[in-house]
Amino acid sequence: MNPIPKMKSVLATAGVMAVLWAPVAAIAAPPPEGYADLVEKVSPSVVTITTTQKPSDQQVAGLDQMFPPGSPFEEFFKRFGTPQGPQGHPEPMHALGSGFIIDPSGYIVTNFHVIDGADSIKVRLGKDTDYDAKVIGSDKETDLALLKIDTKKKLPAVPLGDSDKIRVGDTVLAVGNPFGLGGTVTAGIVSALGRESDMMGHPIGLSRSNYVDFIQTDAAINKGNSGGPLFDVEGEVVGVNSAIYSPNGGSVGVGFAIPSNIVKTVVAQLKATGSVKRGWLGVYIQNVTPDIAEATGLKDAKGALVADVTDGGPAQGKLKSGDIILKFDGKSVDSSDALPRIVADTPQNKVVPIEIVRDGKRETISVTVGKRDEEQVASINPDGPQGSTAGEAVDKLGAHVASITPALRQKYGIDQDIEGVVVTNVNDKTEAMENGLREGDIIQKVGSNAVSTPKELASALDKITTKSALLYITRRGQQLFLGVPIA
């Protein structure tokens, strides 16, 4: 899909790889006076983190089966090396990462993936002072963790800056423990802001990207830098280094850091309660595409389109399918990606105003934010089986559709309570295909008009006066909207 050959790269964190594409930013030139004063000021606050994880019972049992006592291989591996320790069992696994002190009493920030699964954690200050660390709290979804070491000394702490003020082109420094080499400093610029996935939709980092818009930098970040700070030229932490694009695990000039303003919010909750509590609205959402905007009368393709409302959720009876959320608690919702972060940062039980477009009209409703106990995910796969030509042709869509019969319910797994017309084939050269219509989709509405037969669908499309039709469909039990240009 990418026209540029030989530019395949890999996103590398501690044990995570994903195929991605990205350009390499230009390297920033240092100022004439260099960064020595700044580095001397901040380096004492950066720490090395070492973790140890004991082998699981399954690993021990597996090797015992492979190399039982008295087997011909037991003596061989004793002489020439084995993943087993001196007792014939797997040795503990060790990992390295970075972190930084945010409180003189011994609180340290790092990545969740640096300490995930660790049985013991040690923090090294300077070159040879090690401390046992305990986990105060961690948050997998933002890939952050808060540690604490006990010491009578007042430790050198660094402040968290305002990541909203940084701009593309600003100079930044990464300090950490790449490849276990200890305190290492690299410099570069902020090469992009608001990164959450690559152009192909693969998420960046270990978080689910619902709550993190990463800072992209060309300051060299390598394995072992995870959890270390990204400084601005004032010596304030503007990000936590978390992930890189790389074909080999080393820096190629594209790294990612969690913005400090997200760190502030998460760390404050971890310090207070040991966990992060997020607000919950209880809706499945999708982006407002240009075609959906045109079909609904919006000037701009902005907002979050409500595809479905969760039963028993805070929004039930308040929001409904087809609503477009433009503002939440006074904050603009430019895309569906922005809404989960805004809701998550809203205190639970707070009554908030939500500005929406419903049936072409703007209005404001109030919803009490709920508590999100577990991840609420709306997973919609745009791909589906193709090839059937049964059904009646609908020229305006470039597709074949049919009324739902018992046989089609069985073929496509359609629930008994679902009504509409099922798409049995989509021409692969039509705009409907390009905009996401797939075989097996059940078209339930055109705009606000319910349809249950091919004739009703064709009639509803004939009444459309805009260039695109807004289709409400069900796909594998999930509801979503498609804005589809009509012939």
Basic shape: elongated
The radius of gyration over CA amounts to 27 Å
Class of the largest domain in CATH?
A: Mainly Beta
Mean pLDDT across all amino acids: 77
**Corresponding CATH architecture of the largest domain:** Beta Barrel
Number of domains: 4
Number of helices: 10
Low-confidence stretches: 1-28, 58-63, 76-82, 197-209, 374-389
What does this structure look like?
With about 475 residues, this protein is α+β, with helices and mostly antiparallel strands. It is about 15% helix and about 35% strand. It folds into four domains: about 10-40 and about 155-275, Trypsin-like serine proteases (Thrombin, subunit H, Beta Barrel), CATH 2.40.10.10; about 45-140, Trypsin-like serine proteases (Thrombin, subunit H); about 280-370, Roll (Pdz3 Domain), CATH 2.30.42.10; about 390-485, Roll (Pdz3 Domain), CATH 2.30.42. The protein is built from ten helices and 29 strands. The strands form five sheets. Strands 23, 24, 25, 26, 27, 28 and 29 form a seven-stranded antiparallel β-sheet that branches. It has a six-stranded antiparallel barrel with strand order 9-10-11-14-13-12. A hairpin with a 2-residue loop joins β1 and β2 (about 15-20). The longest helix has 14 residues, at about 260-275. Mean pLDDT is about 75; it is low at about 1-30, about 60-65, about 75-80, about 195-210 and about 375-390.
